[in-house]
Fold:
Amino acid sequence: MVKRILAVNVDRVLLPTLATPDEREAIRFGSAVVTHADLAASARAVAAGLAGASRVAVWATPSLPTCLAVVGALTAGAAVVPVNPRIGERELAHIVGDSAPDLVLAAPGDNLPAALAALPRRDIDPAERLDGPLPAEADQEAPAFIVYTSGTTGPPKGVLLPRRAIATNLDALARAWEWTADDVVVHALPLFHVHGLILGVLGPLRRGGAVRHTGRFDSAAIAAALADGATMVFGVPTMYHRLAADCEADADLAAAIGRARLLVSGSAALPARDHARITAATGQRVVERYGMTETLMNCSVRASGDRRPGTVGPPVDGVDVRLVDDAGVPIEASDGETVGEIEVRGPNLFLGYLNRPDATAAALRDGWFRTGDMAVRDPDGYVRIVGRRATDLIKSGGYKIGAGEIENALLEHPGVAEAAVTGEPDDDLGERIVAWIVPEDERPSEQDLADHVAKLLAPHKRPRVVRYLEALPRNEMGKVTKRALHA
Structure:
């Protein structure tokens, strides 16, 4: 299988296994299994019905038809606009109006909202197959996806991701994770984000391996897949938090998770406490990586490298990563303390924001993408994210402080179940550090939490205000929505 993949010019072909398919499993949802040969025949059938379409919306439910729709559209050379099935009416209307898809692909029986129901529709039947040659491969610079950002600072922006970025980035991850055709990835990630769709579906298919989607996240389902041949797990921190608790309560489940070749976490920082709990229960050390919709993956801890909690490792092959100060001057220090904004350059970059040349120009500086993420760099080149410039960089008493390291310190307190850190105006300090805490059974005092942080980090990083909540507001990928805290 590997030899057949390598025989194809993978620099030009996004999914080389479609040209040389075999009967190995490619995709599994529950009892529904599609082989690579089935996938190629399905891709031809879907593509045949998309002749002349330049953009297609995909109603991206966690289902086999969603995967077949995406692969078929990419085979046809159309750009895919994945749509969150839980999206609000206003946001959906903006996305449809902005991207102007030629039609919408959905599973038979899906009930579509009005903005999509007005488009021509094609139902994706997993049983539909077509023999014959594949369409000609689209140009590497052609958009493969238009993925919309969360829209936290305005209407969502459509990120134009070229086929070139996807192919080169998945290959870089393959080298970092020693990812081969023998690997089977299991996950329960949404299929309208880069993480679940591009890494979690196209990644295994490009390698010639397989993906098993469990629908909703369930620790027992993940363990069952690992016991039945799965080798890699993709997840977000909320999933690993639940997995840690379940493994601590069930030794058999912990042993099953311990069989994984690789556990990969992304989309947000995995707290050090959960790293330690998973390692203690399963013997596994979780690998973290760092990426964005506009850049795909920029950094990752290597499978054979130092799996150090709190870091996202060095840049992946082919991607340049630098830290800059407020004036855009590169920071040379690798002392683990000097905070700078991450800028990225490489073949992984997007083409721009659809219909937004102003936003595209603002996001780029001399060919470098300005991520808005703040980080420090350790002496060995490992990058540690400390937060977002807009919400996580706190300027207090003359210091630049990243909210992320304070959050991790707070989570080491036995009385803290969840923690988020923000800044708010202060007449004396400029900004004061505010800790938002979901306590365990007993509420720790404000002074106790301040002393705990000051002991672990430094006195100027202690929270000056503590606010207690029953739960932190989070989006569908498990990230805390900090603007909702202040609202």
About this structure: Residues 397-486 form a domain with the GMP Synthetase; Chain A, domain 3 fold (CATH 3.30.300.30). Residues 163-177 form the longest helix (15 residues).
